[in-house]
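Q: Got a minute? One more chain.
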Amino acid sequence: MVDHSYADLSLAALYDNLNPWGPGDDFYLDLVMSAGSVLDVGCGTGRLLREARAAGHGGSLMGLEPAAAMLVQARRAEPAVEWVLGDLRTRHWDTEDFDLVVMTGHAFQELLGDEELRAALTAVRTALSATGHFVFETRNPAARAWEGWTPDRVRQVTGRDGVAVRVWHEVEGVPSGERVTFTETYDGAPWPQPQVCRSTLRFLGKDALSAFLADAGLEVVEQYGDWACGPLSPGSPEIITVARRA
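A: Always. Here it is, folded:
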């Protein structure tokens, strides 16, 4: 097995097929269309901002992404968006003034360390306008989503070249505290051997999220448990948070 990530062009090209447009994308697109200036942190292939441009958004749109291969997909599809390679530490945000900052696709869960998380949230606060909002989602730890990440649950996706690829997940060992490490394996004709992405995600509960936000000078405005804006409950699959400057 070979360890890979979405820095690989062949895997990045599969991302949108593996993660088709859904209710979460509709939720964020509505927010983007109602905001004059938007920063998408961890924008991936840029699909959200591409759709916003296609729907007629004429304001400032910036996509920030640390994986160069993902930005290759974004730039090819929509050059009329500012695509920036890097993370929230890449720029000095004191001159920015975004009406909306979003982190979609559970990108927030990739902030693993306390200091990394605090630095990211502080940067978000700085990037927000006085009336701006920060919106992101994280999987609700009480729902224990990782228990369904097992190798017997194989998905098949088809790339742009029409070639089928099999994909499955497997959790490594026993989850340690708030962190879950797992592999995502790709197997198909494009590669001589399975390609394996290894990732760790952090699962923070409602109270911990609120505490980190408060430390960075942000406060929770709303929290939902699903993409229909249902109330947050112990069994909710998501913790969707809307925050603003405190």
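A: The chain has a mean pLDDT of 92.
Q: Perfect, thanks.
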